[in-house]
Amino acid sequence: MEELNSRAGQHRISLVNREACAINGVSDVLSFDVGEVLLETEQGMLMIRGSELHVSRLTLEKGEVDIDGRIDSLTYSEQTASAGSKAESLLSRLFR
């Protein structure tokens, strides 16, 4: 199992009782607040929704994020190709 975890570009989510989430393969944190965390991962954009969300650990050098709180949903969307379209996608989500 150690060999699997050490591969570059691997994306993994571990969710415990909908209260604690450990995520690998994160390249950027685009936004976060108590109701939503938006991450850029190896597998696309990941939106985590819930209540009282807290980013308890962030290590972008290793691509790791830990989130605590009540997690209600994890939603992926396709990763965009350029930074301009990423910003547009983020803005369109904020104003829905």
TrEMBL record:
Signal peptide: none annotated. GO terms for biological process: sporulation resulting in formation of a cellular spore. InterPro entries: Spore_YabP, Spore_YabP/YqfC, YabP_sf. It comes from the Bacteria. NCBIfam families: spore_yabP (TIGR02892). This is Sporulation protein YabP.
